[in-house]
Amino acid sequence: MVAVGIGVSSGVLPATRMSRSTRERVNTKRAALPEPIRGPMGRPRKQHPQENSIFANNPFIEGLFEWMDSPEGEKHREIYDALAKLLEDVHLDARERKVIWPDARRLDIERSVQRIQKLYRDFPRGEIEEFMIDWIDMGYEPENYSPAQFDELDSLTERWVADHLRNAKTSKKRKRTRHS
Question: For 45-59, b where at least 16 C-beta lie within 10 A, e where not — what string?
Answer without folding.
Answer: eeeeeeeeeeeeeee
